[in-house]
Amino acid sequence: MTTEDDVLTRLLANDEPTGRLSAYGPDPDQVWEEYGDPHHPLIVLVHGGYFRPSVDRTHLRPMAAALSAEGHRVALAEYRRLPGDPWASVRDLHDLDEAIGDGTWVGHSAGGALVMLHANTLGRRAVALAPVGDFAKSHAGGHGSHAVRDWIGGTPEERPKDWNALDPSGIGEWQRLIIVHGDGDESVPPYVNADLPAQWISGAHHFDLVDPASPYWPQVRAQIAAAIRG
User: Fold this and answer.
1) Is the pTM of this model over 0.90?
2) Average pLDDT over every residue of 66-93
């Protein structure tokens, strides 16, 4: 049986950038890799990793290459992931948006949570793949070794304003957003998004949703296509 770790290992096998590198700020993490024809419809990919500085965009390169081969311009985003300064991540995606223009935003895991916030703020079309969509549930479950707590810089009791402002589940009304989650996910358990309007993919693990070689990829691609159509 293929595990989430097996899929991630395969996605990380080619760690050489194949896209065109551009910067939207002075920090080494304020960059994006661009794939495909710049005249084609834009998709912005935002990676996950439970907001940890040690996890970067590398594992989404196969997805970026696959989407560009299907006729899209793809911007694979990097952004700052600073424990205790969550707003740096939010600001970075806003600055990237200003640098590259309107497009469909696709985020995975922690990146899915950021895309949900970004879509709500700027009204972008968006797809959140296995997002950390409910911070309270993730915190209660201790997911990612309390990754959300570490990113925000304290517990909900210690930093209530930040928790309330950043938790995607508190947005309320969704516009132009599609949430996709596999019911076999072990990294972000399905119950985290059980109260959100998610599209469920039976049998899919966490990294299956960003793996072009996965048997579930056609379902993910169809959801992205639906978001692009608006």
Assistant:
1) yes
2) 97
Question: Which residues have CB under 8 Å from 50's CB, separation 6+?
Answer: 109, 110, 132, 143, 144, 147, 148, 151
pLDDT greater than 80 at residue 205:
yes
Give the residue from 108, 124, 61 showing the smallest Cα distance to 220: 108
As for how many domains the chain has, the answer is: 1
Distance CA 124, CA 137 (A): 26
Dist. CA 140–CA 220, nearest whole Å: 29
The enclosing domain of 206 has a CATH number of: 3.40.50.1820
Torsion of CA 68, 58, 179, 217, to 10 degrees: 60
